[in-house]
Amino acid sequence: MKILVTGAAGFIGFHLSKALLHEGFKVVGIDNLNDYYDPQLKTDRLDNLDAFVKDNNLTGCYHFVKLDIADDKKLSQLFQEHNFNIVINLAAQAGVRYSLENPKAYIDSNLVGFANILECCRHGKIEHLMFASSSSVYGMNVKQPFSADDNTDFPISLYAATKKANELLAHSYSHLFNFPCTGLRFFTVYGPYGRPDMAYYSFTKAIDEGRPIDVFNEGQMKRDFTYIDDVVKGIISLLEFRPRRTASQISTAESALKVYNIGNNRPVTLKHFISTIELSLGKIATKNLLPMQPGDVPVTFADIDPLFALCGYKPTTSIEEGIEKFVNWYLKTKNKGEDK
């Protein structure tokens, strides 16, 4: 089977592409390699993936194309050149706080780009579209844990609103054109090769360099931190489970769309998360305790029972184990940079 992975130079896309190749799939990866954060990290991921392909004699199984999903003509041409069985759309403008500064980037990538993906899947007779959503769609919901059946009509950031819009667009396309879609609501993914704009990465770097860190909501926020390997395992476990056309309990409109949470199901406070980083680094942080930021939510907590019932999905990486792996990667990468 041939799978298209969009956002293949991104954090999740890189790890997923490697895992798919390991499982025997053929993979075409695309990414626009933008400069939202240091493009060198994206290049490093692609170099690592190229080395993996070479070391495992998988040259004919992997192909990368620099391409922006907002470019409908080039995207359509790619679909015409390849007979994709499955599309996994991870390309998106990420980040809650950045959406306050540059909303157009979210419209172009998360809305226009995703609509282009849907059109290409429709005309390309794709067997299964899987796409990244986010735990941010739950907003300030008070019910815990968050269930995929909960109301998500109150996003508190533009980023969350675009992810909710993706789910609505997928429902419409699945209803109208009858192709299976699976939405993946990720919960605070972390691990090696992660995004530098994420708190765990910036905290680690600042603590290591002896700089103070800004801790919002005085560290009392809770997050369902999910290690990258567990996220990838969840995505791959859903490949074969293509949603069937059904109606919901509140509407007769049938579609083949299903949405799942992919989380750890064990939220921890930001304060505890920081102390775990301190322990792995062997250094103590200087903390600036600050109030909650606009767009942030106090708690994320994933109900993963439906995913467990469907395919036995169960995260296995503890916060302590996952942070240690990330910190070891960070120190190794930092030391390599200092040796140059």
Task: Please characterize this protein's 3D structure.
This protein is 43% helix and 17% strand. It has 340 residues and is an alpha/beta fold. The strands form five sheets. It has a seven-stranded parallel β-sheet with strand order 3-2-1-4-5-6-13, sandwiched between helices. Helix 5 (103-123) packs parallel to helix 6 (158-177) and helix 7 (199-209) packs across helix 9 (270-281). The N and C termini lie far apart (41 Å). The mean pLDDT is 93.
Can you lay out the helices and strands and say which pair or pack?
Elements: E1 2-6, H1 11-22, E2 26-31, H2 39-55, E3 62-66, H3 72-81, E4 86-89, H4 98-101, H5 103-123, E5 128-134, H6 158-177, E6 181-186, E7 189-190, H7 199-209, E8 213-216, E9 222-223, E10 226-227, H8 228-237, E11 246-247, E12 254-255, E13 257-262, E14 268-269, H9 270-281, E15 287-290, H10 305-311, H11 319-339
Portion of residues in helices? 40-55%
Q: Class in CATH?
A: Alpha Beta
The assigned structural class equals alpha/beta
What are the secondary-structure elements, in order, as H or E? Answer: EHEHEHEHHEHEEHEEEHEEEEHEHH
Please state roughly what percent of the residues sit in beta strands, choosing from under 5%, 5-15%, 15-25%, 25-35%, 35-45% or over 45%: 15-25%
CATH fold group? Rossmann fold
Distance between the termini: 41 Å
Mean pLDDT: 93
Rg estimate, integer Å: 20 Å
The CATH architecture comes to: 3-Layer(aba) Sandwich
What is the overall silhouette?
A: globular
Number of domains: 1
Largest sheet: 7 strands, parallel
Strand tally: 15
